[in-house]
Amino acid sequence: MPALKVLPLSFAIIILALSSTILVRSPQMESQSDGTQSLPLVSSGLNAALDWLTANQLASGSYGDYQEHWTAASAYALWLNNSNSAEAAASYSYLATQMNNSSTWFWGAYGEADVPGAVLYSIASSSNQGLINTTDAGAGLLQFQQSTGGFRGYYDTTQGQTVTSSVDTDMALLGLIDSNSIPLQNRTFAALYLLSLQNPDGSFNLTNTISYDPLYSLGPDPISITALTLLALKSDGFTSANPTISQALNFLSKSVASNFEENGHVYSAAMSSLAFKAYDQPDNAITSVVYILSQQDNDGGFADSGRSTYPESNALDTGWAVIALETRSSEEGALSPINSPPVAVFSLIPQTPTVGVAIHFDASASLDLDSDQLLFIWTFGDGSGTHGSSSIHTYTEAGNFTVTLTVIDSGTNPGPLSDTTSLTMTIQPAPVQKSPTFPTNTTELWILTGAAGAVAIIGAAYYLGRKSARGPVAPTPVTR
Question: Nearest to residue 369, comparing CAs of 193, 139, 163?
Fold first, then answer.
């Protein structure tokens, strides 16, 4: 059973005051006015968890077969504490071998995007990307993305098939964005898919029909799913100013206030702590850290009550708990929010334009996930151009012309970003309007001549017929 389940208020206050020092693994002893030795209490929990990860690592560097996501979390936790850690190096060597092998179970037809996504995120975040073929890893992950924008990996027993989920999409996005191996369009569609799964209370569902599944290890409850989705959207440039983000943060804040639905939900607390730190909510982040430490087991590890192996400590919960304890907020020196580039989209009417006909171009479907203001620049391929979200242009000559739309946002870090899209279209000649003229070819002349002759014959016959019907005309008498 866990060693501590309720922390005294004085300990919570000490952690709040000294939260920026949690990263220090071997601090000097400090005594508080109330006699509590603060830093050793804080760091001892972290040290014990790190010792558990070291003691439970297998000779291969892994934490069990088919548990690459466990190893990914543990490796990153060990690396954050010491980038030269031999244990972290062993785990990353194992993970790299799994990622580089196309026959590894998670690359197959029944694979899950969340596992390779978690591995790629861990490898990229720890500067170990040189160990893998990033191009192949990115392509392998992108094969899981569906037309909805989401990534598949969750087996829906009600449908009898693997479907897209927020958890698989979250982990895939975190890995692909951190390794810089996802095209802009794929990234945008994935984010839009995640937004479609939000509930009115701010939480996110697992799929479009299932709110959560306690057996899905990386998203066993609405709290952890929402926190993980917030982290994925943060990596895509979302900020707390976005209504979607603020609603989700409010949902997590209520979870903190309810003590994460009582004891045992250490994984939810760890993911929430990371989300709060990412969006600069230090009070909630520290409260989450206090809760995490209160759930530590006697052996130094952590276990979420939703696991079938609870209360036995495991590498997944311990790894993420340590990451939450070690990760600094942006106020403590992390990177500022990264500007997300816009997406340029336009349509035109009519679809088959001709010379002299006004064409209406509309770019209102273009979007920016940061809600930045957009500047629209058009070039029409005939030497002319204009600005604005919509435009009307008329071509004076027939031929092929390439219309180009460039959309520039107003964001920062690293600065305004842009996206460009083009369309080559064929302008047809204007239709020729014929005016009535005298026939110029022999066929038309013969037809016209024949028609005129027929009319003359019919007219003459009619006249003669009328004359015959009246009989002889008597001579007019002459009056003398």
Answer: 193
